[in-house]
Recover the amino acids of this structure.
């Protein structure tokens, strides 16, 4: 296991202090992680071609508004950033839903989830919604796998960080992610579930 960076230690300390002093979110946590969140926002927006009208700063500030009002107790830097990434993803899903007024066609949307990428490149609004719906279906029968997919592919965490956040071994995390990836690829390609 690699040692924690100075920033990770600092964020973890602020998160502990926030349990008694929630105002530290504004005073200390957000300033430390602002640039990291902006980088995450740019990455998510770059992957969604129809959401190009949104700016990374707008996405970060919208995520901030949702996070600051949350009663979530974050365990560490990785947990906070995965939650922030999920909030950004939900904002983009809400944006996609508002932008799509007509029903989608009956054709299946193909969205491959590769090992080397956090999120498939240049997703359409239809694809964003298809991925979200597939994750909802995955959650129905395997909530752990759904959470691992969100942390890895949308939260931008490494497999080791995913394992640590969920309190499972690295091998177990890898096995679950491989199975979840195969299921998601089948589901998103329109193949019949097995």
């Amino acid at each position: 296991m690699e040692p924690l960076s100075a920033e990770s230690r600092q964020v973890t300390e602020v998160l502990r202090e926030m349990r008694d002093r929630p105002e530290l979110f504004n005073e200390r946590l957000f300033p430390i992680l602002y640039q990291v969140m902006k980088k995450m926002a740019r990455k998510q927006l770059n992957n969604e071609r129809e959401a190009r009208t949104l700016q990374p700063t707008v996405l970060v500030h919208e995520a901030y508004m949702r996070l600051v009002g949350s009663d979530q107790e974050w365990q560490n830097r990785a947990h906070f950033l995965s939650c922030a990434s999920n909030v950004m993803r939900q904002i983009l899903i809400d944006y996609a839903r508002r932008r799509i007024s007509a029903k989608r066609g009956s054709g299946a949307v193909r969205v491959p989830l590769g090992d080397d990428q956090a999120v498939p490149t240049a997703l359409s609004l239809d694809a964003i919604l298809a991925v979200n719906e597939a994750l909802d279906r995955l959650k129905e029968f395997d909530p752990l796998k759904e959470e691992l997919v969100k942390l890895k592919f949308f939260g931008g965490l490494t497999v080791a960080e995913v394992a640590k956040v969920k309190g499972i071994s690295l091998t177990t995390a890898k096995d679950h992610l491989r199975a979840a990836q195969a299921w998601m690829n089948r589901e998103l390609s329109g193949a019949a579930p097995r």
Observations:
- Confidence is low (pLDDT under 50) at residues 101-121.
- Residues 6-100+115-188 form one domain.
- The chain has one domain: 6-100+115-188.
